[in-house]
Each structure stands twice: as structure tokens, then as C-alpha cells.
């Protein structure tokens, strides 16, 4: 029996503040081009470029180098023996530390790459276990490292198209089927916030031993 593939991908929250909108969307696309369980990709640059929707392979290569420099992916060059000799094949392992879950269906939404990237970043700044971002627009711009006008424009567009709503309690992503709500385990939260207190035994057990 064929193993069912997951209909979502893990996206590390660490991209927020490190990537701009187009880069964030590329990270999401790379995740879609990766193994749904391991988040390891063997996609070729030309295939990723086409999947992303542009023709400039050099631009995709520059962004991938940035991902590597920011610790968002690990790149490895593997030598593969084939029928006609040995060739190189790059492998990209995506960071999934402190992740959110986003459905594959965002890729097919009839909106710009920039807006898709913004929605990915907005999900990364939602409270753990929710689809609600409590930052003001100005605070969100600061958290994401984006211009206030850029954040304002994309919030307005996302609201106009029904992807979000705003009220006194924050900015809310509306599509729970696309932006999945998850709760991280205690060990995952501690691993990100207080890594210095964890031992290898704690991580192996999946809980922290007190006393």
C-alpha cells in the first residue's frame, strides 16, 4: 500500500525577521518541493525556479545562499553514480525548529507571490496554538523587518480578499484549513526558549525531569 503524503508542510518561525515577502514565499515553495516527512529536498534549481514562477535561476540561487547563511537550510553536495558517470546533486534540508503548519493549497491561491509570502510570515508571528497575531501594524513591521507601508498594504489586501480580519484582539487568519492550528509540546517550547537548561536525556525522553 502506498504511503499517503501529507497535505501540509512545516515552516520554521525563524524565517520571520530574516526573509522578505518574496523570499518567504520561496521558502514555502522549497518546502513543497521537499519530502513531506523529512523536509529534505533534491529539487534542481531549474525546477524550483519554474515552480516558483520566474525565469531567473540566478535569483533563486542567491536566495538559497541567503537561506543557508541564515541557518534556515543545510545544503549538501552529493555525488551520484549513474549509468553515464558520476554527477553532483544538491540536497537541501529545511530547518523546522519551532514550526507552523501551512497547507499546500496556499500555492494555488489566485494572489501574488508577495501576498502569499506575507501570509506565511503572518502565520509565523501568530501566538502559539492560534491563528491570531497580537502585534500592531507598526510592531509587526518591526518584527518582520519590513517597511510599515509594506505591512499596511498587504494587511489591507489580505483583509479585502478575506484571508484575515482585524479587531481589538488582533489580526486573525481566517482559513483554519489552510493555516493549521497546532500546539507544540513543552519540550519543543523549552528547546527554543531555554535551550541551555535542557540535557540530551530530556530531549530523548520528550519531557523535562524536575528535581
Distance between the termini: 47 Å
Order of strands in the sheet with most strands: 1-5-9
Number of extended strands: 9
- The gyration radius over C-alpha positions equals 19 Å
Strand content: 15-25%
**What's the number of domains?**
2
How much is the average pLDDT?
Answer: 87
Number of helices: 8
What is the N-to-C order of secondary-structure elements (H for helix, E for strand)? EHEHHEEEHEHHEEEHH
Characterize the largest beta sheet: strand count, sense, and whether it forms a barrel. Answer: 3 strands, antiparallel
Overall geometry: elongated
Structural class call reads alpha+beta
Estimate percent helicity. 25-40%
Topology diagram in text:
Layout (H helix, E strand, L loop, with lengths): L7 E5 L8 H12 L7 E2 L3 H8 L4 H13 L3 E10 L2 E10 L4 E5 L9 H12 L7 E2 L3 H8 L3 H13 L3 E4 L2 E4 L5 E2 L5 H8 L6 H6 L6
Antiparallel strand pairs: 1-5, 2-4, 3-4, 5-9, 6-8, 7-8
Helix pairs in contact: 1-4, 4-6, 5-6
